[in-house]
Amino acid sequence: MRRTQLVLCLFSILTSACNKGEDRSFSSWYEARYEKSACLESLPEARTFTTFSDSLLVDSIYRSMMGPYERKNFEIESSDSLIWIVGYEVEVLGSDSASAQFLCHSNLNLQEAKKLPWSSNFESYNSRVFTLSQGIDSVRFPIGFGIPLPGTQVFELVSQVLNHNIRPVNAQVQHRIKLYYYNESDLECALRPLDQQAIFIFKQYEGPQGLFGQEANKV
């Protein structure tokens, strides 16, 4: 009886050790399902998915990160089990040419990033995919590179406005975002997977915080 228990115990330990050493990287996940060589030539035109934020009211001076904002979730609803994100852009829509000045940022995040079927190459998988702001309102990866995600991935869009200089003001604006992507079935070759990580920097030097929703911020 003791010998049987010892054998079962050793089997459990060895099984546990093997599981801990299991390669759960995206590359292993991909190679187990697809047999494609790396993309070295031009690719077909990427698909686009477009969505809009709700209307955001700019009626005061709002410092960076302090203006009205909105969060919304959406899905591309791809028929493929795997998609590749290759670009992202944002445009501020409004009634006049000054609308572009109201862009604070547009964030694209992953919902439930920890439930991806593969593991990150880093200690943690950051849910932030893109952040765009004034001066950087679009990004496209070099040909042959992309961020792999499940076709059923749910995204979170965070849209925020600011106003540093214009007053008086009473403007309604929207963020229009475009996501550039491929279905895996669109590709005859394998893209090189990118793993996103984010660096956050925020420093207040002086002056009031200017929080959105506080009457004292009205100018």
Description:
With 219 residues, this protein is mainly beta. The chain has one domain: Nucleoplasmin core domain (Jelly Rolls, Sandwich). 11% of the residues lie in helices and 33% in strands. It is built from two helices and eleven strands; from the N terminus they run ααβββββββββββ. Strands 1, 2, 4, 7, 8, 10 and 11 form a seven-stranded mixed beta sheet that branches. The protein has a four-stranded antiparallel beta sheet with strand order 3-9-5-6, with no helix packed on it. The longest helix has 19 residues, at 2-20. It is elongated and about 60 Å long.
The number of domains is 1
Radius of gyration: 23 Å
Span of the ends, CA to CA:
82 Å
CATH-wise, what's the superfamily? Nucleoplasmin core domain
Helix content: 10-25%
- Give the second-level CATH assignment, the architecture: Sandwich
CATH fold call: Jelly Rolls
What is the overall pLDDT average? 82
- Category from helices, strands and their pairing: mainly beta
Largest sheet: 7 strands, mixed
Sequence stretches where pLDDT stays below 50 over 5 or more residues: 1-19
The tally of strands reads: 11
Number of helices: 2
Order of helices and strands: HHEEEEEEEEEEE
The general outline is elongated
How much of the residues is beta strand, in percent?
25-35%
CATH class: Mainly Beta
